[in-house]
Amino acid sequence: MIASGGTRLAPQADAYERAVYADAKQYGQHVGATEPRLCTKPLRDLTPETSHGFSVIDFARDVLGVTLYPWQKALLIRALELNEDGTYRFRKVFVLVGRQNGKTTLLTVLALWWLFVDADSFPEHLPARDFLILGTAQNLDIAEEAWDAALKRCDPTPDEDDEEYVVEWLATETRKPVKTNGKKSLRLRNNAKYEPRAASRMGGRGKSAARVIMDEMREQQTWDVWGSVSKTKNAIFNSQLWGISSAGDIKSVVLRTLRDGAIKTIREYEQYVESGIQTLEEFANTHDVATALFEWSAEPGKPLLDIPGILQANPSVGYKPMFFESIWSDLLGDEPEATKRTEILCDWVTSRVEPFIKGDGWSSSADGPVLDDDDNVIELGSQIADGSRMTMGIDVMSSARSTSSVICVAGYRTDGRVHLELIAQRTGMSWVVKHAKAVRAKTGINQVALQTRGCPAADLVEDLKEAGFDVVSISGSTLLTSADRLNKRIQADKVRHRSQGPLDLAIANGTTKDLSGMPVWDRYGSPVDTSPAVAATNALVALEAFVPPPKKPPPPPPPAAQILTRDDVESTAEASLAVAAF
Hints:
This is Terminase. It comes from Microbacterium salsuginis. This protein has about 575 residues and is of the alpha/beta class. The chain is built from 18 helices and 19 strands. The chain has two domains: about 10-345, Rossmann fold; about 385-545, Nucleotidyltransferase, domain 5. It has helices at about 15-20, 55-65, 70-80, 105-115, 140-155, 170, 225-230, 255-270, 280-285, 305-315, 325-330, 335-345, 360-365, 430-445, 460-465, 475-490, 500-510, 530-545, and strands spanning about 40, 90-95, 130-135, 185, 195-200, 210-215, 240-245, 290-295, 365, 370, 375-380, 390-400, 405-410, 420-425, 445-450, 470-475, 495-500, 510-515, 520. α15 links the parallel β15 (about 445-450) and β16 (about 470-475). The longest helix is centred in the middle third of the chain and has 20 residues, at about 255-270. It is elongated and about 130 Å long. Mean pLDDT is about 85; it is low at about 1-10.
């Protein structure tokens, strides 16, 4: 197929070349890159028989009157690749591209094609009445943007201003839509549906969706939304999820993790299959070949005004009038460079400031998997030694948009090092005390450390005390020296841990603020959520500096009482206390 960034295809790809490049127009000297810089390779030649992308392109042109940009055509053909049985090769498709490049138009066309064409593809496995498209975004307005654009094309009862957009054939197949904000629904006469929802923990729960659109995935900073919405398609035949976004930053935990996994597969495909080390079947047996990444982005580290980078991240340049001039103006504007790189150049900004814990001490102290004689994983990392004293550390991160809480534990290993581990992280804080009690019941841990003043976690103190916990107050000089304590233990190789994404992210990128000349974890100034680092630090401090005094042995029982009798008193007939037995 096409080399990355190039335009020359092998002869067998003529169908792809004709479909993608036939309508190319240039409005100026600069033309955006049609092909993604990073992409999952097709398993077969892409033709109308092996990809539904051709059908979507024809539908857009012939039914909707929309001529897609070359990059949109390339994406559709690649992303809608088919297996030999006609099902989609990819269950998850991730698309990264600079802002304002036409993703709403792309999603609108795709959603309409799904509804009016694809919903009837496998009636024996997925009848149209069970076909649901779930469109989500962190902000409901964004999710509804593509839905509103789709409705304009098929609304049987349009507003006067929207009548010119309606396609009569589509409108006759569409039922009266629900337009109430927050409850919008577009339903066809065959009962195929399209619903927009806010990306929340409960946004998709209870629904089984054949197609899922996750817009602006860069805004997902925890796994709650992904866990809720992505699972809606698991029980549906031939389902597909599309995640689309510009690049994220260090807080974009979900997108970054999924992107990293896809890139790893792309690199290993090049290493093993293209070099002939493995057959495609062998590779497929050990890798996820049902997840795709298609990314239009500038080469990392290039100058902000590097024109090739601009064109690689903005594939609509040359097809969208004045677009290049607008981008150039934005890059010269006053916004922070990190913002320009993520939104315009689709360049990942992994850290904007220098982290407190430097070097690779933390990553090198992670326990690797424990293997048996046949190299099978039997457990992940070393465990805290049997009988070791253990402590819990708690922290809460709260903002205007969300609250999340973390529990970490600390204990000693058999080699004398401290083992740190994150055991729970969830939204809200009402669950913390109950979970801590469950941990105590299982492990015996009764000592809990948290900052007791001036932070959200302080609200948990009284509840923890009422639950019978020994609460260690991280305050005053203890607070001032806590972050540096963890740093020194890491540098001295006295800490081990199980590699866990949220904790690794917080330690590797968290920053501190100066308080009385000492470094204290900065919850709100760090580029990441530092609460896992704070909770682990608290657990470490409690383990090392707050060892409970040994319990005093109970006093011995008093001696047994003795019965005293007298024999120096003569017995009389009258009762006498002197000789009475008690």
